[in-house]
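Q: What does the assembly look like in three dimensions?
Context provided by user:
Components: two
Sequences:
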Amino acid sequence: MAEEPRKLGLLWAFMKGQRLRYAAAAGAMLAAALVMFLVPLIAAIVIDYVIQAKALRGPQWLRKALEAMGGRESLARNLYLAGGAVAALTALSGLFTYLKGRWSAQASETIARRLRDRLYEHLQRLPCTYHDQTSTGELVQRCTSDVETVRTFLATQVVEIARAVVMLLTVLPFMLALSVELTLLAMALVPLILGFSLVFLSRVTKAFRLSDESEGRMTTLLQENLTGIRVVRAFARQDYEQDRFAESNLEFRDKTIRLIDLMAWYWAASDYACHLQSALVLIMGGLWVIQGAADVGVLFAFLAYEGMLLWPVRHMGRLLTELGKTRVSMGRLWDILHHRNERGSPAPEVLEAGALGERVEASPAPGQAGPGKDLVPAQPLGGSLTVRDLSFSYDGHAAVLDDLSFDVPAGWTVALMGPSGAGKSTLMHVLLRLYEYHRGSIRLDAHELRDLDPHWLRSQIGVVLQEPFLYSKTLRENIRRSSRDDAVVEAAAAVAAIHESILSFEQGYDTLVGERGVTLSGGQRQRVALARAILHDPPMLVLDDAFSAVDVRTEGSILSALGRRRGRRTTLVIAHRLSTLIQADRILVLDRGRIVQRGTHEELLAQGGLYGRLWHIQSELEEDLRQELTAGPAGGNAHA
Amino acid sequence: MPDPAVLEEEIVARLDLAPWKRLWPYVLQLKRYFIPMVIISALTAGANAAMYLAIRGVIDQAVSGSRDGVLGYGLFFVAVVTGQVTCVWMFIFLGGRISQNIAHNIRRDIFQRLQDLDVSYYDRRPVGWLMARATSDCQHLGRLLAWGLLDLSWGLFMMAALAGVMLYLSWELSLIVFTVIPPLIFVSLKFQRLLLHSSRQVRKTNSQMTGAYNEGIAAVRTTKTLVREDENLREFQTLSSAMYRHSVRNSLQSAMYLPLIQTLGAVGAGLALWFGGLDSMAGAVSLGTIVLFINSATRFFDPVHELARVLTDVQSAQASTERVMGLLASVPEIRDSDKVRQAIRNHERGTGILPVRSTGVPPVVQGRDDLATHGRDAHATRAAPLAIDGLDDRIGTIEFRDVTFAYKQGQQVLEHFNLTVQAGQTVALVGATGGGKTTIVSLLCRFYEPVQGEILLDGVDYRRRSLRWLQSSLGVVPQTPHLFSGTIRENIRYGRLDASDDEVARVARLVNAEPFILGMDHGYDSEVGQGGSRLSMGQRQLVCLARAVLADPKVFIMDEATSSVDTETERLIQDGVERVREGRTCFMIAHRLSTIRSADRILVIDGGRIVEQGSHHELILARGGYYELYSNQFQQEKRRELLGGSPKAEQ
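A: Here is the predicted structure of the complete assembly.
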């Protein structure tokens, strides 16, 4: 049970600022209930005092009040007053009910919004190591359906808890005041109903899970069939597929019917218990009326109160199940929120909840971002880079970068190449502080990288990642970042050789990217990302295989456009095309986390190695073609 | 493509009965549940009314001091509630069966229809859209027909029963109390509609928010490198604030609705108290009757509320009914013609008994039909095995004759395309993306049919042959290997359902898949996971290959994968393909040098035409487009060998 305070404590922390509103909502509900209790009372008075002309058994003040109104005769003459009072009191109670609904809606929606905003913010600020370990679908699921579970609980159940308490606190005194015996009678079956609904709901939950699972299997089958429809056709397996689906469809139907049958028992049985409770009051009350121990009006009022009381009681079972679900959901959200963000702190609400429950663990896990020193230099970045003895590993064991040392003087263009898995992209990520390095040193200008504020650092470096992400916004919004100047946007697009393509779209820069707009080709995406990266003319540019999908000619024009800033901007580029590599001031060849070759194009050619072999593909091709051309028709594969 | 989110949110202004009528057969099928349901809802309403009568009886008997009377009516009350809960149990029981059977039956028919609809139908609709029809729409319709009908009939009977009892006891008092009903109906309808609109708004915003989370998480690296966190959060907050507004509006509407109709009920109760009290003092009605009137007036909103809800539900389900019924009414354009179906029937009837006539077609199909002549021309041998449509089971020469094709009108992908492939030839299709390679293969599979021109199998237009025969004669290996959840064995056996375990193992060996399969925990019985997710890309390709080979196809069609596979697996696949090709006509959409070089014929496809063709040697000599294509491919493959990594990026 050590988990419990933490989960619900987190919910409590999120409720901050809304707790008063909830209290007000509970107050309104109390008021509504109190007013509502008067209604049967009025009817009771009319029945006993006015119509039956009996002496009133109620409290002293009530008798006095009625005397003051002119007593029985006057009331009998003006019976519309009673009818009007019933309507007016119900309306007044309705007003309070509305206020309760309003306040609890505002409170629960405010909390839900805060929860959603906090999750979104925290997820963005969590380090990449976190995102590497989680799947997007799973996270989205938590942010939507788990938040929805919590929201439903806040919107409907929190008030219900209050209602149950309010009812017990208000109905009981009323009933006791009217008749102690009848009250005991009216409560006789309540424990039974409560216990029954608790036991039953746990069984329903199980049946629900079974139905849910079979639905999942059916959905999977359906989806695989629909996505693989060409395979189904190609093997003419329509009948087979139908048989398989029929089986699964049937299973889902039967499991769900089982669930509903269970519900039928539940509803019928709990209805029956409630009705029997009423019957008890009705019969015993009737007999007491005959004995003169109670009045008809009182009996009527009791029956009405019984109705008010039984519903919340019957609801208790559901409330407890909902509470259980909410705890599970809050636990899943806690899982996200307690992780430390890039600045080393969990979500503030977690810290707050930690004071209630157990303490949040003190030190960050290995590989996870620790608190940086957040230095923001006064000068913009110069661009010289010094890497010494840098080692890095994602999991603390297998070294992805192994003892790297190299220098990049300000204004140089340095190219990195090597087989996939050599650590090129990792090096770029470490440089951007997407991952923290723990061994060796990276100095940018005179600063150790881990002392710099990561946001400042990234704002100084233009980056195009290997698979650049474009937001589902317009092209302009994708490129412009904080700039409002269209001319700047278009200039950047021109350098990235995407301006013309953008203009060729019907809506130009206002074209939406993504599902609701155009689908860009890989090369177009890369060029838009490049335009975005160079918009602010950053002192340093990092291109991670950024031209891989751009054709060679376009790449050439981009490179020459970028070349105009040559010498003033430090550029790190991962590339495999010789045309790109050849233009670099220095080339580093990486293999398995180490620099295996370094130098200019000519130097590397002379060394042979991977670089040399790459270069010689050209001559291999020439050799292959020469053989094909000189051989007779028999040398190739003869045409059948 | 239509955006599913937009389609879901159509709001129908008026009720159209036409789509609902098409649901009628589904209702008729379940009349054994529907009829008792209506009867039971009437009984429930009767029991509800009887409960009020019992209470009235107890009170009146108590006032008159009759002990037996109180006990009698009390027991009557117990009997009535016993009957009532039995009814509740029964209608939930029946409602469950109705809702689930309706959903099940519609879903079954949708699935069946989807198996027959053209591939082009799938092109126009995202899988998610189709899924929604077969899942949520079906459930929705099932719920609506079961519980909606229950609420509707219960509501009507309840109103009738209450009104009947009240009118019987005192028609004057009844008429007075009934004055609250019209405003009750008006308010209910009005608010149900408001609630419908605002809850739709909530759902729409919610799906936008899901999209925002998705993007926010998928883009997390890009966001960090652009230092865009704050701006993203601001944008998200606009969305979450909109969600707040819509949700609160929705809640406020329901917070207002309930007190309003309760107050209206209280006005009725007040009227009953006032006029009933006067009547009672005059001795016209009993105390119990007043209590009954008060109770009835306060409960009257229940049936009214339910009726209004059902009406709105029907209205909101209109769009999904139309979509479901529209899907069920769609007819595949590509299917066996009447003549082919007739031929299949005749063949089934005549198998083994009726020697097929010299024409190879049953007499019914003869006459003006020139199919017979084609058949005769193509095959002199009569001893050949017969296909299910009574024609030759073998596939020899395949000819595309003057084929023109367009996915969308006016956008020709193929134009006057001609190609003849002899039996046993391997044809490699190469060329840039979008040139029409996949289209050629899809046309051959008859996933689509030519807009103009014809595709001839041994001289017979394939539209005159059975679709199932053709498709089961082809062995297709798609570019993205698609597997179904289940074991490896089940996936391979998909190629031929009656294959023995030995045969499965034999093809797995043939395509070099056995080593990896035996290396898995449960060998052939290892689960492949959803969509094959537990296997690597290369392993999936091997399983697909085995599956195709098991079918022992007459024509082998392979769309070579462009995704990267480790060199070892790559070699295994190559080797396996090589063995499969022996003795078969093959169409390869080729990306690998070895495949291209070993083909009998290479077709360079561009802009829907064959721009070059010949053997590798001939085409290199020609120094045309193929020469360049080959040079590029050569360098890419070599570079990939050196560097590994992403070949798709090199296009």
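Follow-up: Residues 623 and 630 of chain B are 10 Å apart (CA to CA).
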